[in-house]
Amino acid sequence: MTTATPAGRPPVDLRSPAQLLAALPYLIGFRPERSVVLLGHRAPTGTRLGLVLRGDLPRREDRARQARALAPRFSPDRHTGVTLAVVGGRRRPGSPPPHAGFVDELRHALGECGLPVLHAMWTAGITTGAPWGCYADPDCGGELPDPRATLTAAVATGHGTVAFDSRDELVALLAPRSPEALPRRAAELARQPEPPWPEATRVADAASVIRAAFARQLRGEGPPTDEEAVLLAGALTIAEIRDACLAMAVPPDTPAAREAERLWLTLVRELPAPGRAEAATLLGYTAFMRGDGTFAGMALENALEAAPDHVLAGLLATVLNRGMPPEQLLGLALAADPAGTAGFWLVPPDVGREQPV
Fold first, then answer.
1. Phi/psi of residue 50, each to 5°?
2. Where are the alpha helices (DSSP H) in the chain?
């Protein structure tokens, strides 16, 4: 299992091994265990973080295969090199850190892709005082600082980013809130394969449904009813509505973008397959644009599980896995709403009152 994170995460000092290891939960969204994390150095200077890729630590017989699967994800035209961070295992006194054979396989596979390993380090776990060390220098090592006290943690917290204790906790965010409601909604969606509004007013009617959902969310009225969920699923299948929803992802981290992400997450949890694929795709794109590749990848996986042939979800998943930075997909939102009228004429209360654009 792998997790990809594009550039755009909180800043981190790539020259400080202890700080970098302690910052990993804020770079990938959760506290890694028994993992290898590959951190790309962005071209041309190599001082900025590029693609961040997490993988499970393999069994001894799978090391070469795992290394060959991970290394090609880092393109030499976008990276100058890669730093390796291994999490897990116990170091014996006087011995190199564990999993050194896997690090050698990664070094070889990355070298074949034209990228050097600039540094390779290990820690027993991402906790305060955990031992850490370097593979190339036996005198390089120490104890980790408090992960919550790093600069990366401070910046991430200021942006509202949460580092979960495990990947399972992050996955649980996408789980259905009320599993017993899904069969009812699936049956209703099957009886109603097309949006229920007249062709002449379809876009306006669907926009009203989305706008009403935002209003209920801002009033704190809780999840949608069966009828509301079905109407929302239908609204998101309309191209003009989907495009306006995509445009709400930018600028990232604004109140409007956060409200949109909250609604897409709610709908992922409230809608059955294949209807939830549209909401999951919007969730993935919004998370990607604010730099959270881990959550974006999970949302896109959710979309493709619901609808394996979903074109936009497949495209975004490919882009994410190739390590492209979010700014390279900014045009998708801008092209979707060139007039800047996204938001369904609803502005969150901490920005201003509701008004037409």
1. -105, -135
2. 17-28, 63-70, 100-112, 151-158, 167-172, 181-191, 202-218, 226-236, 239-247, 255-270, 276-289, 293-306, 311-321, 330-336
The residue among 337 and 297 whose pLDDT is bigger is: 297
Instruction: Report in angstroms the alpha-carbon separations of 100 from 25, 109, 120.
Output: 23, 14, 9
Same domain? 67 vs 13: yes
Q: What integer pLDDT is reported at residue 349 of this predicted model?
A: 36
Q: Of 135, 164, 193, at which residue does a domain stop?
A: 164
Asked if the model's pLDDT at residue 86 lies above 70, the reply is: yes
Residues 124 and 209 reside in one and the same domain? no
Mean pLDDT on 238-243: 91
For residue 117, which amino acid is it?
V
Rounded to two decimals, what is the model's pTM?
A: 0.75
Three-state DSSP at 220 gives coil
How many Å apart are CA 248 and CA 81, to the nearest integer? 35
Tens of pLDDT along 142-191? 999 988 776 665 565 555 566 677 788 888 899 999 999 999 999 999 99
Domain that residue 53 falls in: 2-164
Whether residue 213 contacts residue 228, with contact meaning beta carbons closer than 8 Å, is answered with yes
- Residue 140 and residue 17 in contact, taking contact as beta carbons nearer than 8 Å: yes
